[in-house]
């Protein structure tokens, strides 16, 4: 078990940035540098000889002119601060924007120093899950590319980056309609340096979650897992499923689940690949942890997958009611009478699992009432109503999901003996119904009656879980 402790986050300062970073400074700080030069050096050339890095004099002299409107090289300004005995923190406070030398993407209103929050870890996890590192053979330039088909999730990715680094000024806002988001080179290099990841560390079959993340606190582990669920996971039938080709990465995600106490299992799938299942109990705990962390970091929102997760949780916790024979099928017919729909849409409208929806659709298709004629945008059949026909419904009753009540009773009795009345209250069921179930379990030698206890009106039996030879 990993405890959620309040600890000081790491900070990345401007002097930790790559050497090809260029910055825009305030006019007041520039004037301060010029005054220092006049006080300590007779000429620009004499100052140039004292720099810690070799810079052609013609360029150097231009960098400190007020008329120079371009971004200035970070290494030169760091060197000047050391020569003039100006604190680097002062320089950091007077930075208005930055980027790498040839980049067209600028970070304005920067957050400096950069605080390594759980969002920082989540950004790198997104790149590993559904992104890549772009590097040209004939150039030194490298930068992250993130691919996301859902517009809301694309914008949420940008929101995470801006929350950590500052506003990102793109030449054009192309990501509203496109599926890719390109991060500035300077951000990509800063994150790679912090985690010690090389270019190969983002390849599909070689990517690994950094040790700094695996050894971090609960919130960092959770945001990393959330990123993989957003990009590579789906939620259905009481579990979260994440599929990858990278076995080591799947095992690391399982390790994270174990640290967070999310019950999980791994299996392989054909032709190649591996699947992590976060099981029912783990999914419910994940939902609680996610809901709490989202209050602190709204940017971690899972978009439409959050809705799927919420619906699954509601289905698991609701009182199960049998609608009667053909009731659900008639509801499907009514929904399809309005317009064609996918299994996902029908499942959400009916508040039942996709597997349950498929079961009813298959029977309606066999009966010739519905058919599939096209495929949805991102895969999956679209169902059409061929003829409107209302099926005969049987009387409605109330029941519970097969096996759920038994599991609940066994879990309760595994902790401590309970009376029939106590169990009825905990299960929110009628006393007589619970008593009949308990007698049935006792006859099958699953539980045992260990005595009686006086109740308000009638005596009630005490039940215990016991292995009977």
From TrEMBL:
Domain HTH arsR-type residue range list: 328-371
Classification via CDD domains: HTH_ARSR
A GO molecular function held by the record: DNA-binding transcription factor activity
Pfam family, one: HTH_5
InterPro entries in UniProt: ArsR-like_HTH (IPR011991), Homing_endonucl (IPR027434), HTH_ArsR_DNA-bd_dom (IPR001845), WH-like_DNA-bd_sf (IPR036388), WH_DNA-bd_sf (IPR036390)
Tree of life domain: Archaea
Entry protein name: Winged helix-turn-helix transcriptional regulator
Species: Candidatus Iainarchaeum sp
């Amino acid at each position: 078990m990993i405890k959620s402790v309040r600890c000081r986050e790491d900070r990345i300062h401007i002097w930790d940035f790559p050497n090809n970073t260029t910055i825009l400074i305030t006019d007041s700080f520039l004037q301060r540098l010029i005054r220092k030069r006049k006080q300590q050096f007779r000429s620009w050339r004499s100052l140039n000889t004292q720099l810690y890095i070799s810079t052609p004099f013609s360029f150097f002299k231009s960098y400190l002119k007020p008329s120079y409107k371009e971004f200035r090289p970070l290494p030169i300004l760091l060197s000047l601060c050391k020569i003039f005995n100006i604190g680097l923190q002062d320089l950091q406070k007077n930075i208005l924007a930055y980027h790498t030398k040839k980049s067209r993407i600028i970070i304005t209103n920067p957050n400096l120093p950069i605080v390594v929050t759980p969002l920082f870890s989540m950004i790198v996890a997104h790149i590993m899950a559904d992104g890549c590192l772009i590097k040209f053979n004939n150039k030194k330039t490298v930068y992250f590319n993130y691919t996301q088909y859902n517009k809301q999730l694309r914008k949420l990715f940008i929101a995470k980056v801006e929350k950590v680094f500052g506003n990102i000024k793109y030449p054009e806002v192309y990501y509203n309609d496109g599926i890719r988001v390109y991060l500035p080179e300077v951000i990509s290099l800063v994150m790679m340096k912090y985690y010690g990841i090389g270019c190969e560390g983002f390849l599909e079959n070689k990517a690994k979650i950094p040790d700094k993340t695996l050894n971090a606190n609960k919130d960092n582990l959770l945001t990393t897992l959330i990123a993989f669920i957003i990009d590579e996971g789906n939620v259905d039938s009481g579990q979260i499923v994440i599929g990858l080709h990278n076995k080591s990465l799947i095992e690391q995600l399982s390790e994270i689940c174990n640290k967070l106490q999310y019950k999980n299992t791994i299996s392989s799938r054909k032709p190649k690949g591996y699947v992590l299942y976060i099981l029912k109990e783990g999914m419910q705990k994940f939902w609680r942890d996610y809901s709490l962390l989202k209050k602190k970091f709204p940017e971690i929102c899972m978009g439409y997958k959050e809705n799927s997760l919420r619906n699954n949780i509601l289905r698991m916790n609701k009182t199960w009611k049998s609608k009667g024979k053909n009731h659900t099928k008639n509801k499907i017919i009514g929904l399809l009478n309005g317009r064609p729909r996918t299994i996902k849409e029908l499942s959400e409208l009916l508040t039942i699992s996709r597997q349950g929806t498929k079961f009813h659709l298959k029977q309606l298709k066999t009966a010739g009432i519905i058919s599939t004629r096209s495929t949805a945008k991102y895969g999956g059949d679209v169902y059409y109503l061929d003829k409107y026909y209302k099926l005969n419904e049987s009387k409605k009753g109330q029941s519970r999901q097969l096996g759920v009540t038994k599991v609940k009773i066994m879990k309760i009795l595994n902790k401590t003996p309970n009376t029939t009345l106590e169990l009825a209250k905990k299960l929110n069921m009628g006393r007589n119904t619970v008593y009949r179930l308990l007698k049935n379990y006792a006859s099958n030698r699953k539980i045992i009656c260990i005595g009686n206890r006086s109740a308000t009106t009638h005596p009630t039996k005490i039940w215990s879980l016991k292995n009977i030879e």
